[in-house]
Amino acid sequence: MRQSNTYVLLFTAALTVVVGGLLSLASQGLAPAQKKSVELDTKSQILSSVMDREKLSTMTREEVLDVYDKSITSLVVDINGDVVEKDEKGKAIVAEEVDILKNYKKDPAERMYPVFKYSKDASSGSVDAYILPLYGAGLWDKIWGFVALEDDLNTIAGASFDHKAETPGLGQRIATAEIQNRFVGKKIFDESGSLVSVTMLKGEGNDGLSSHEVDGMSGATLTARGLNDMLENYLNSYQSYFKKVKSTGVASL
Fold first, then answer.
1. From CA 253, how far away is CA 241, in angstroms rounded?
2. Where are the domains of the chain?
3. pTM score of the predicted model
């Protein structure tokens, strides 16, 4: 028997409401698990800039989070290097929850800048590395990562980069230990104290690399350029914070 148009419309509307409700319930039910997954991924990426990646990959979720809690303390600063504890609504700001993508879309002067302080021995009260998040654009899509600076806030202790859609075997190599390890030991300030960052050159096997240069990736010049811009832009944005740490001491920031 052929149903009327009214019946069909009512049935479709009811079905839409039911399916929508089920999807909403499923989303709410999965939210805690999704939040835990994001937390683990973020903290793993932060730790990978100062820890052996292979060892980190063999650890359980609980082990990763335990290491993080014992070795990392965090804070958020603004472009002036001042610590920011609450947002405009009075809500406490948590460094691990700062959305770097949303901040990237803002003017640099309006962004929040997380700082993750790494200590091999938390009881010592010392900071062995300052880990800073980075965000930028590669050849095809977004790239991001973390760079760890030694306590001199000049020497790179480690780096962890990732991407969304760089070319396999070419720009995609920024996510490999081979490329990331090239940055270890490089300096972001020159002898006069000016921030020059670290530049990935064009091509590989370059001779006479300075303390501010690393070999490039063959066939991935544009990805390398995006990586260079990302490093320079974010390191420049943290300069005021660097100056305050150096002038006031580790314990105060």
1. 9
2. 73-252
3. 0.84
